[in-house]
Structures are given as structure tokens and as C-alpha cells.
Amino acid sequence: PALGLFLFTIARDPLRIIILIAGAFFWLVSLLLSSLIWFIAVKASDPRDEPLQKGLLIFGVMFSVLLQEAFRFLYYKLLKKAIEGLVALSEDGCSPISIQQMAYVAGVGFGLMSGAFSMINLLADALGPGTVGIHGDSQLYFLTSAFMTMVLIFLHTFWAILFFHGCEHRRWWEITAVVVMHLAVSGSTFCNPLYMGSLVPSYLLMATAATWAYLLSGGSAQNLWCFLLCKS
Asked: Where is the signal peptide, in residue numbers (predicted)?
């Protein structure tokens, strides 16, 4: 599904590809900084203190989420400047891409880079040593991880639309809602290996965020019905 989003809505437009790659780069920088903080915290702590290590893990996840949202805001500010430049260069005084479209493409960029790193980690674990479920644990680790990766890609896309809309109209509660949803989805992964405890809430939040983003983008039930019936 994520590949379909790229092929059908982004791949044919050079400007959208540039925005997507820049968005992926911003997410990558946020990961680099959060990894650096995590590395320093682990090295400065006692590895034999299990409660402390668990606390550091929770801190690392939450700090990474907040840093990602901070870089999403920085990317929004950069795109606003880019729109001003595009308007100044255009002959008709109009931007070739709207802020809503930019939000969508930026969100896909964030999501694809997030998904790529998730899959790299999974493939590294798949090389061994060991066999999934050999000690009686769930054998659905890779399957559920794939579904979790997919939902995060879509969530990043919807979150970007909500986040940019909140910034545009100064609706700070929309930005807060995005941060809270991001923290909730990341926090739900601590329920693993009880995978239903993380997948079900994540997909429910995805449905909520998708509906919300659709309505904010100008969608309606009538438009959706016409689309399903292939009517103009």
C-alpha cells in the first residue's frame, strides 16, 4: 500500500519527489539525534540495573517521538518559505502545489523512511541466530511487525496533514492531538509480545486520523460515495 501511494500520487511529479526526499531526510536527522542521546544515556548508566535500563528505553522512545514532531514543525516552516519562493517565481502568482499537498507528500516521506528503518532492523534480526517462537513465544513476530510498519507509514501521512493544518490555522489542539496519538502508538508497542495490544489500538487510531485528515482536506461523505461509484 505504501508503494502504491508513492507510485500513483508522487512518482510522476518531480516537485513532489523533492519534497518527499527532503521529508525523509528530516525524519532521518531526528532519528540520528535521538540515537545519539540514547547512546550517551546507555553508556553513562549501569547495564546491570534492569529497572533503569527499562526506564531509559521508555525515555528514549518518548524523546524520539517528541523530536520527530519537532522536526515535522521545522519542515513545515521550511515548506512555507518554499511556497513563498515558488509564488514569487511563478508567472501567475500562484504556487504549483498547495500546503495540503505538501503536507501529504511530507507525511509519506516521514512514513517511508520510518518504515524502511523498521524493515532493516527486522531483516537484520531474521538473519539469526535463533528461531522465532522456539521458546514458546508467538511465531507471528515478523507478520505483526510488517503490519505495524504499514500502519506507521499511513499514520505519519495522516499526522502530517493534521499537523500542517493545525500550524496553518493556529489550532494548537490539533498539533497536540498529533503528538498525543504518536506517543500512544509508540507506547503501545511496550505491550509486545502481546501483539493485539499494540496492533488493534494503532489501527483504530489510524482510522480516526484518516477520517479526520480526509475531512480537513475538504472531503465529505458525498465525495467518497461518488469516488466509490466512479462518478465525477
From this structure: none
